[in-house]
Amino acid sequence: MKKLARRGLTGLLVLLLGGWLLLNLLDVNQLKKPVLTWLNENTELDVSIGRLEFNPLSPYKLLAEDVRLGDWFSARQVYLELEQLAPLAGRTEIAILDIIDGRLNLEQTRPPELPANLANVYIHELNTRNLSLAGNGWEAGGIRLSVSNWQPRQNGQWQWWADADVSGNLRQLSHPTLELAGLDISGHIRQGRLELDDVRSRLFGGLLSGSLVLDPANHELRLNRPRFSQVKLPFNPDITLPDGWALQLVRAELDNVSLTTPSLTVNGIRGELRDLEWTGTGLPQGRGQWQASEATLDWLRLDSHTLQWLGDKERQSITLAGNAWQGNIEAELGWYADQGRLDVDELRLSNTKLVWQPDIRWPVPDVRIHKLNLTNTELLSLDNELPLSVYNGDVFITDLAWSAGLWRPLSTQARIEGSVTELVWNSLIGRNTEFSARLTDEQWLLDNLNGNWLDGQLTMNGSMGLYPPHSTELELAGKDWQLRHLSNWLRADRGFAGDLTVNVSLTGEPGNADSWQGKLALDGRDIFVEQAGLDHWLHNRLAEDYPRPKQVDAALAGLDLMQHDGFIYRLDLQGPVQAGRWQLNGSALQSVRHLLALRGSISAGGQLDLNLGVINDAGCRELAIRLTEDWHAPQLRLHQPVLSASCQPWYSGTVPYPAAGLPGKLIEAVRALPAP
């Protein structure tokens, strides 16, 4: 009996061993074709598998190699270990699903159609190694991901955002506008939201850490308490978010962050952003405060400064204080992006040294200045078209707006006032100048401008209309001006020097020369003019015969004048301005040897209509000079009128006869002089 039992057990063992060997020798790949055919016909998966490893003694474990689902998924290996398979109940539990060297194309992904007996799929553990994702401009590589306790399918419906625990890392995540590397994540999916409690990554040369919430249902991506450290963040204005999506930052910490845009660069930012939200278009809304080592906006530059920001969809408010242009700055600004408008609520610059570059262009088309105060400001222009420098300038501006190329007032208090210790325009120098002006809806009002100009004094006031015909009123008084400065400034072909006093009172329209009315007076002393030898030219004309009026070549006369320099002891040109013509009756100038009187007019456009007379010591005219036409190419006529025994004085003004002038009748005296 015992022998029989031993033989029976031995036979059963041999039978089991033989069955096990038979099953292991069975090539499961022979079953691959009919199984895949059935799957593709019943699930529309379009599955292909290169090789299967399957042991019937372990029926819940399967290793598939070279797996492909359509043209949207492929993997070198897929390992499947079933926990439970209940086709009749429509429930499948997967203990482990490993995907190795997988590739997923998100743009072509579609939910697989599964039969009813796979209505519920539960995965205890899903692992990926070196998974790659691509689609919609995004690329991710080297993904090691673990997803646990996940039910992606319930009651025949796919639910990709079902609750699950998630952890892993990505070697690289990139987009045309974003680059992340070494991304570590840990969190879960709850109620359709991806909640990552711990996110760490390298971002634009720095580090990012914090927590993240991705809410597809509400189209929101929120970073909670993110910390950006050493990040060099480039911002392209073309960056957008998918329609309807919003990016939120809650209590973001900035540690030595740099921001670069096509026009703005900020370096060394340290601070905090609170409640920032951006919808992908326009500017964000939120609030924050930080300090930065430097910032440049186009040609505007700030050095070390602190800044507070409060923004909404309509207005971006900025309050800043710090160093700028070797001085100090305090500002409260408001930016209205939709209107392209900058509001300068208050701006203070003190002890600054500004440099104007030739390529500077004001970047904002609409500016409203409510209060601007410049104290002890220096300005140096490197632009040849603006040869200006200012030393120790104080300027105060309130309630002025610049828009569409025009200034306009914001209130009845709109004004500009200030003082300048020294102002240089090319070689024209003004010192200790004060000014004040107001702006109304219709005109600029210059209440006062006075200072030391041309080594003399200048006082000016007036008004000018903002709109055509730009009606203008001007009152100007200049005393003891040194003409050598004016000569250098004008870069005249012929240098000149001397002392000049000017008085002007005019009204008119700049575009209408005939509209000017008022009076103009010039009083000069000791005036020297290069290549204008008036005495020599008059002496030669007195020595010649002009018994009747004779036309003379003005060009030749000009060449004759250029042979010598001229000196004028006294100049008195004054008279009313009527219909754009300066009436010079009663005017005269005294050279070294001659007294030359003037009658007639000069138009604002340079048209001459002048009678000049060389006057003897009795006030009689012995040489008549007629100048007409344009002053660039005048017509010149000479005449020596016959003098009666007792001539009628042709000039009786305030300019005296020169002490070195010839006595008696000039023509006789000149001709009586010995030949040189």
Structural description of this entry:
- The protein contains six helices and 42 strands.
- It has 676 residues and is mainly beta.
- Strand 6 and strand 7 form a beta hairpin.
Please write out the topology.
Blueprint: H1 2-25, H2 32-43, E1 47-55, E2 58-69, E3 73-86, E4 91-105, E5 120-135, E6 138-154, E7 157-158, E8 164-175, E9 178-190, E10 193-203, E11 206-215, E12 220-229, E13 232-234, E14 246-250, E15 252-260, E16 264-278, E17 285-292, E18 294-297, E19 300-302, E20 305-311, E21 316-324, E22 327-336, E23 341-350, E24 353-356, E25 366-381, E26 388-403, E27 406-409, E28 415-425, E29 428-439, E30 443-453, E31 456-465, E32 472-482, H3 483-490, E33 496-509, E34 512-529, H4 534-543, E35 550-552, H5 554-561, E36 566-578, E37 581-583, E38 587-591, E39 595-603, E40 607-615, E41 621-630, E42 635-639, H6 666-672
Short description:
The chain has about 675 residues and is mostly beta strands. The chain is built from six helices and 42 strands. Residues about 1-25 have low confidence and may be disordered.
Features:
mainly beta; 42-stranded mixed sheet; 6 helices; 676 residues
Q: Shape from CA axes? A: rod-shaped
Q: What is the rounded distance between the termini? A: 173 Å
Major beta-sheet overview = 42 strands, mixed
Which runs of at least 5 residues are low in confidence (pLDDT < 50)? 1-27
- Measured by DSSP, the beta-strand proportion falls in over 45%
Q: What's the overall average pLDDT, rounded? A: 88
Structural class: mainly beta
Number of helices: 6
Q: Roughly what percent helix?
A: 10-25%
Q: Give the radius of gyration.
A: 47 Å
Q: What is the count of β-strands?
A: 42
